Amino acid sequence: MFYQPDYKIFSNCQTCDDRSCASQTLSVSELELLSKNCNEAKFEQGETILAEGSRTSHIIYLREGLVKEYGKSGLQEEYILQVVKPHSYLGLHSIYSDTNNHYSYAALTPVRVCYIDLNVFSQFIKENGRFGYEILSSVCNDSLNNYHRFIDQHQKKINGKLADAILYFAIVIFGKNKFDLPLSRKELAYLIGTSRESVSKQISVFVKDKIISVDDRNIKILDMNRLQNISKVG
Amino acid sequence: MFYQPDYKIFSNCQTCDDRSCASQTLSVSELELLSKNCNEAKFEQGETILAEGSRTSHIIYLREGLVKEYGKSGLQEEYILQVVKPHSYLGLHSIYSDTNNHYSYAALTPVRVCYIDLNVFSQFIKENGRFGYEILSSVCNDSLNNYHRFIDQHQKKINGKLADAILYFAIVIFGKNKFDLPLSRKELAYLIGTSRESVSKQISVFVKDKIISVDDRNIKILDMNRLQNISKVG
DNA sequence: TTATCTTTGTGATATATATCACATTACCAT
DNA sequence: ATGGTAATGTGATATATATCACAAAGATAA
Fold first, then answer.
1. Strand A48-50 vs strand B212-215: parallel, antiparallel, or unpaired?
2. pLDDT tens digits, A167-223
3. Residue with smallest Cα–C1' gap to C18
4. Amino acid A76 CA to nucleotide C23 C1' distance, rounded Å
5. Comma-separated ranges of CATH 2.60.120.10 domains in chain A
6. CATH number belonging to domain A22-145
7. Is any atom of strand D within 7 angstroms of residue A180's beta carbon?
8. What DSSP character marks residue A161?
9. Which positions in chain A have a beta carbon within 8 angstroms of at least one beta carbon in chain B?
10. Domain covering B156-233 assigned CATH 3.20.10.10 in the classification
11. Taking 80 as the threshold, does the pLDDT of residue A8 lie above it?
12. For residues A221 and A171, is the Cβ–Cβ distance under 8 A?
């Protein structure tokens, strides 16, 4: 919470290593326009990148780091919709509804993002069908993934939900069997829709059963087969 | 289950009364192309329009009637993702993943649909940015609605969930306080993620409290304020 | 007609999980 | 140091809801 975002005015999207699939459909002149309307910023772990209810004046592209997309409407408990990986746009789904963001975004690790002017972004979609096609594609896939996760969560018990979450981090986010969980136990509970205590207890059970080993937030999968089975049967 | 879909080979999308927002961005020549690649069909209540796992060879446009979008993966219970209103495309989100539909679609009322060739549809998206923009917009809004419903469901108790569902039909689907529920109690349970028995009991409570009156599947809201309050607090 | 199946309501019981309570540890600021 | 706050683990209890069991009503078929 101590560092102010560090803005760079000039960016060069043509030479950017972190370009999105969609931006690869842009012409040279479109990329120039993008560069002129694109500002980079950094956030530290824990910082809020975008708050629910804020104006959708810019599209945010996540170059580096992990972000949680979460809601916290009114009196309700926080709910983490998903953990967003690099090379995705944040909150695309909000730009067509009203003019406000429907979810909040916070950095789970140090993060680099680009702010892209919404008008320029919309112009690309309207005038470059292939760009729109890529954006549409990513929104659709995102939706499908989230729908599946939601339904799974609804139908599984805590052991299944936790197995899912661990597998999600191991396979989708990190691609390794040993990783540092970027969430507190409380946040993990918000992600899988249970209570902190239940998460703690279920982790203890998995450890006792030698399915995983845990050292603080470092998790190692010891028995992938059993974990996947729990996820299926859960 | 007794009527075979009744296919019409010729259609005229230019003069269609049920045209989607997106199709209104199409040029005359594009509309002609659409007409040539568009077949109408009818389904009776209860018939399956599209099954999970089937090939996404066509896009289906819902002209008339109500459809349930549901999943039923493997051993799991059925889960109704949403009730789809007329003038929407069915299963748009599935066309970019693999080549299969991820959810099933069944008619809740008599239904009229149009099958649109997927290649033609994709061509419109890629070549007509405004068409893509409209499609993207509808996918985004759909996603947001579903995300909100999911989170609400996770955090509310049965009374709140049922209140939500009744308000959803009254306000969004029918626009009246008195309507015929197009779902059985069992399906209603699948929609809000509980058991049939719990739905029955909660309905009885609402009736006893004079919040709604019920005659079979006909529902009338007697006390809108209290119902909305239960939905909020639930 | 009778028989079978589906839908629905409702009471009794079982159970998973939330909640409460408390202890421990670590981290930060003064 | 030292006090305060946040994160975590774990046992006891409360509770919402699923599950089971059964009855009644309608629909459908023989």
1. unpaired
2. 999 999 999 999 999 999 999 999 999 999 999 999 999 999 999 999 999 999 999
3. A195
4. 29
5. 22-145
6. 2.60.120.10
7. no
8. H
9. 71, 73, 76-77, 79, 81, 92-97, 102-103, 122, 125-133, 135-137, 139-144, 146-148, 150-151, 153-155, 193
10. no
11. no
12. no
